[in-house]
UniProtKB/TrEMBL annotation:
InterPro entries: GH, GH26_dom, Glyco_hydro_26. Residues 51-335 form the GH26 domain. This is GH26 domain-containing protein. Residues 47-81 have a biased composition (Low complexity). It comes from Actinomadura physcomitrii. SUPFAM superfamilies: (Trans)glycosidases. Belongs to the glycosyl hydrolase 26 family. Gene3D superfamilies: Glycosidases (3.20.20.80).
Length: 355
């Protein structure tokens, strides 16, 4: 069954193609008719039990993150507060309180050999939020050779058993040069992607929406588009879009420009799965977020996920890779404006005055 959404125009965004996915409406996550879902990655406190975001260079089987930094959030309740006591949900609930609303999407990171769903994953699928499960990759040639078939089958069955719609973002940033030793080539990646989907299909896993997600930067000199498995293999197209530590200041529109040009040729909903404003931008963080809101109000963009974390920072002085808005009143206010705008609240969830 194919879900279809007619994408209209918004000011300055231009026309977008009619959007289709291979996901089954009502069973797997499908795009909203109007607007875009709002979500976030909110890491646990240092030493917490929930998973951290693995670095892009994490080796297969690594479940934890690369450099960890200051965690965002605290154990205070969110707008409703009813889920703050569930595993992994205290930081999410605190972030929701700051945003003045419940999230549509909560992101979770899992290593290639990590079991799921557990902890935060289980809490999210047990609520009315969507789980965005970011699953690390492995050696693509070994996947195609069948080395991991039993593992893949077990994960497929586990997702099916939740009985809830789940976004699955496998092997993100596959275009990065640092991952070439295990990704090998675009052809190898595509073969591995199709191998995973074949196993999920054999297990009759219908509640998954497949999210293909290279880096936005990969649409420059590298050709991230070469890793695209095909419209019949992908439900959502995605990009990770941090501004980049080598820029003094860069609007999100510039970061996404080449990716969006490429995406116009695909009849797919767009997800921006990791965007954030660096603390290095200081007083201009709120300005950046308000400009980002205008960029993301695009008729083809159907989900945006804020990366509310400092864990990619090399140390406490590294403000260019620190994206948490916690403690920055102006940045929190600007991000709350985005989160509570009708465009980014397509399910019309209750809105409060925020923190």
């Amino acid at each position: 069954m194919v879900a279809t959404v007619a994408a209209g125009c918004s000011d300055g965004a231009g026309a977008a193609p009619k959007i289709t996915t291979t996901a089954r409406a009502g069973i797997a996550p499908t795009p909203p008719q109007q607007g875009a879902y709002f979500g976030a990655w909110v890491p646990p406190p240092v030493g917490g039990a929930a998973t951290r975001s693995p670095s892009a260079t994490a080796s297969p089987g690594t479940a934890s993150a690369g450099p960890s930094g200051t965690a965002s959030g605290s154990a205070s309740p969110g707008p409703a507060g009813k889920d703050a006591d569930k595993p992994g949900m205290a930081p999410v609930s605190a972030f929701e309180r700051d945003m003045g609303r419940q999230l549509d999407i909560v992101q979770s990171y899992r290593g290639w050999k990590s079991e799921f769903p557990t902890g935060l994953d289980t809490s999210v699928v047990g609520s009315n939020r969507y789980l965005l499960l970011t699953w690390a990759g492995a050696d693509t040639k070994e996947i195609v050779q069948g080395k991991y078939d039993a593992l893949i089958r077990a994960r497929a069955k586990a997702i099916k058993a939740t009985g809830k719609p789940v976004f699955l973002r496998w092997s993100r940033d596959m275009d990065r040069a640092s991952l070439k030793d295990r990704v090998h080539s675009p052809a190898d990646f595509i073969a591995a992607w199709k191998h995973l989907r074949q196993i999920f299909t054999a297990e009759k896993v219908d509640n998954v929406a497949w999210v293909w997600c290279p880096s936005a930067r990969g649409f420059g000199a590298p050709n991230a588009g070469a890793f695209y498995p095909g419209d019949d293999q992908v439900d959502w197209i995605c990009a990770d879009a941090p501004p980049g530590a080598d820029y003094e200041y860069r609007d999100l529109s510039e970061t996404l420009k080449l990716f969006m040009q490429w995406a116009r040729g695909r009849h797919k909903p767009i997800m921006i799965a990791e965007f954030g404003v660096p603390k290095a931008y200081g007083q201009r963080r709120a300005e950046w977020l308000r400009a980002a809101t205008r960029t993301l109000e695009d008729p083809q963009v159907k989900a945006v996920v804020y990366f509310d974390s400092d864990e990619q920072a090399e140390d406490a002085r590294d403000k260019r890779r620190a994206y948490s808005v916690t403690g920055d009143t102006r940045a929190v206010s600007a991000l709350r404006e985005l989160a509570t705008a009708p465009y980014f609240n397509p399910r019309n969830l209750p809105v409060t005055s925020g923190g």
